[in-house]
Write a structure and sequence with these properties.
The chain is 22% helix and 29% strand. By secondary structure, the chain is α/β, with parallel strands linked by helices. The longest helix is centred in the C-terminal third of the chain and has 13 residues. Keywords: 2Fe-2S, Iron, Iron-sulfur, Metal-binding.
Length: 275
C-alpha cells in the first residue's frame, strides 16, 4: 500500500527484528521514498487489529534504505509488536514532532546522556553527527550511557562500534554490575559529575531517559555550569495521536506531539511545575 502523507498509514513489511534485551526489540522496515525526517522526530506504528502508538525513530536520516524503531514491551501495542516476525506487516504514518535543532548545534561540542531505552532517539542524532557527510560540522562528541544492569544495555554492537572510533568519547555505566562487568557502576547523574570535568563553554547536552534520570541529570548539568538553553531533552510519556487532537499530551500552551518532543530546559522552566 503506497503512503499518501502523514495522516494515512502505509503498510510495510518488517525486514528484520533485533532482540536488544529481554524486553526491547529493534524493528527495521523499508524507508518510503517520501519519508523525510530529522533526528528526534517520531512516527506512529500501527498493528492491524490492535492499534497504534508513537515511537521515536532510532535510525539516522542519513540511512536512506530503512527505518528503525527500538521498542520496549510495555503495553498492548508493544506486546503485539513483540509477537510479530520478519515479513509481517505494520502500518507507518509520520514523521511528527519538531526533532533536534540540528542547525543550532552546528559547530558545538555535544554531550549525549542516555539512560535505558532513552538511547533510541539519541542514537538517531549521534549517527547523524558521526556520518561522513556531517562529522566535520560538529565539535567534540561525548556519550554517557547507563542502564540498570549490563543485560539492559541496548545497541551493544553499536556501542562497540562507537568505542572504536577516535573522534568521540564513550562512557558506559550500570546501576548494578555483575561478575563479568568491567565498566563503571553508578547512577548516570553521579557518573556525569565524575567524568565530565571540562569547562562547558561551547557544549550542548542532549538528555533522554526515564523521567527521574532526566530530572537529576539536568540538576547535575546545571551544577557543571550548563545554561538552561544549552540542555535539550525529550518529553514523550503522554503522546498518543501525534496530531495535537486527542489532547493527551497537552502541557500548558504546548502539545508535546507538535511542539516537542524535543524541548530545551529553558522552555521546560516555563511549563507548569508538575512537569
Amino acid at each position: 500500500m503506497p503512503c499518501e502523507g502523514i495522516y494515512t498509514p502505509c503498510l510495510l513489511p518488517i525486514a528484520e527484528i533485533v532482540e536488544e534485551t529481554r524486553d526491547i526489540k529493534t524493528f527495521r522496515i523499508p524507508r518510503p521514498e517520501h519519508f523525510v525526517y530529522r533526528p528526534g522526530q517520531f512516527a506512529e506504528i500501527f498493528v492491524p487489529g490492535v492499534g497504534e502508538a508513537p515511537f521515536s525513530i532510532s535510525s539516522s536520516p542519513t540511512e536512506r534504505t530503512f527505518l528503525e524503531f527500538s521498542i520496549k514491551r510495555i503495553g498492548s501495542v508493544t506486546q503485539a509488536l513483540h509477537r510479530l516476525n520478519p515479513g509481517d506487516t505494520v502500518g507507518l504514518r509520520g514523521p511528527y514532532g519538531n526533532g533536534f535543532p540540528v542547525e543550532e548545534l552546528l559547530g558545538k561540542h555535544l554531550l549525549f546522556v542516555g539512560g535505558g531505552i532513552g538511547l533510541a532517539p539519541l542514537r538517531s542524532l549521534v549517527n547523524y553527527v558521526l556520518s561522513p557527510e556531517h562529522r566535520l560540522s560538529f565539535g567534540d562528541v561525548f556519550i554517557l550511557y547507563g542502564a540498570r544492569t549490563p543485560q539492559d544495555l541496548v545497541f551493544r554492537w553499536e556501542l562497540e562500534r562507537w568505542r572504536k572510533r577516535e573522534d568521540l568519547t564513550l562512557c558506559l555505566t550500570v546501576d548494578e554490575g555483575n561478575a563479568s562487568w568491567e565498566g563503571r557502576v553508578g547512577l548516570v547523574p553521579n557518573v556525569l559529575r565524575e567524568v565530565f570535568p571540562f569547562p562547558c563553554t561551547g557544549w550542548v547536552s542532549i538528555v533522554c531517559g526515564p523521567p527521574i534520570m532526566i530530572k537529576f541529570t539536568i540538576k547535575a548539568l546545571r551544577e557543571l555550569g550548563f545554561a538552561p538553553g544549552d540542555i535539550l531533552t525529550t518529553l514523550e510519556m503522554k503522546m498518543k495521536c501525534g496530531l495535537g487532537k486527542c489532547g493527551r499530551c497537552n502541557i500548558g500552551p504546548y502539545y508535546v506531539c507538535q511542539d516537542g518532543p524535543v524541548f530545551s530546559y529553558e522552555t521546560l522552566l516555563e511549563m507548569p511545575e508538575e512537569y
